[in-house]
């Protein structure tokens, strides 16, 4: 998994986990079935079109939620997914395999705030809208048809890869230094609020809400 905006922002801060858990209501507004995934909460559920589920996340948790597509699981919860697969498990224990659109969160952190972003650092598979239930803060959204417009070299079955996944060079992975390039600009043009992974991108893409806020994650808004 590529470096996240959440980790870049929070590592220098004093973390103050308090007692406020959060509920993430996941809505499948897609025309196809998705399988939810979350770390550290697990959250494995099949959601057909129009279905919802709730994922409860413990206070102080730092993790992510994403949608998996074209999955097949047996009765023991083992199988595979075309995008977002997490070791062949229905209940994820680790992050998914790119490409997958990530909703990242860090609950009850500095000044008892929740920090969150939509990250395309692992590529894109399903558009998403992330909506807090608090009126004191705003959400974030990545609803463009990135799969349909994906540059040819980044195309993958069911999604669009981040260039780091494909080229594995510092120019695209930003392991020491890098600058915006044509692929970064493609993602940023389509989803200006999303974290892509290049210098100075993280803080501008990270939102925050008061601790204790609940959230709705709408796939295919």
Automatic annotation (TrEMBL):
Domain of life: Eukaryota
Cysteine disulfide links: 30-220, 71-81, 86-92, 137-209, 142-191, 150-160, 164-173, 174-178
Gene3D superfamilies: Thaumatin (2.60.110.10)
Listed Pfam families: Thaumatin
Extent of the signal sequence: 1-21
Keyword Acetylation: no
Location(s), subcellular: Cytoplasmic vesicle
Coiled coil: none
Keywords: Cytoplasmic vesicle, Disulfide bond, Signal, Taste-modifying protein
Predominant localisation class: cytoplasm
GO cellular component, one term: cytoplasmic vesicle
Database matches in PROSITE patterns: THAUMATIN_1, THAUMATIN_2
Family to which this protein belongs: Belongs to the thaumatin family.
Record function comment: Taste-modifying protein; intensely sweet-tasting. It is 100000 times sweeter than sucrose on a molar basis.
Protein's UniProt name: Thaumatin-like protein
Provenance organism: Canna indica (Indian-shot)
């Amino acid at each position: 998994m590529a470096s996240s905006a959440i980790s870049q922002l929070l590592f220098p801060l004093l973390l103050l986990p308090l007692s406020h858990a959060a509920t993430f209501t996941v809505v499948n507004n897609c025309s196809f079935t998705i399988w939810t995934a979350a770390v550290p909460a697990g959250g494995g559920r099949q959601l057909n079109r129009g279905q919802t589920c709730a994922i409860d996340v413990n206070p102080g948790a730092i993790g992510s939620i994403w949608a998996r597509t074209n999955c097949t699981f047996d009765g023991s919860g083992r199988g595979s997914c075309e995008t977002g697969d997490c070791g062949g498990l229905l209940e994820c224990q680790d992050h998914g395999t790119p490409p997958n659109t990530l909703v990242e969160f860090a609950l009850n952190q500095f000044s008892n705030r929740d920090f969150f972003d939509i990250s395309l650092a692992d590529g894109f598979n399903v558009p998403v809208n992330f909506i807090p239930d608090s009126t004191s803060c705003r959400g974030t959204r990545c609803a463009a048809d990135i799969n349909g417009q994906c540059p040819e070299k980044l195309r993958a079955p069911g999604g669009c890869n981040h260039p780091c996944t494909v080229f594995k060079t510092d120019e695209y992975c930003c392991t020491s230094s890098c600058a915006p390039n044509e692929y970064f600009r493609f993602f940023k043009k389509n989803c200006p609020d999303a974290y892509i992974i290049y210098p100075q991108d993280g803080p501008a893409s990270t939102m925050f809400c008061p601790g204790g806020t609940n959230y709705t994650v709408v796939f295919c808004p």
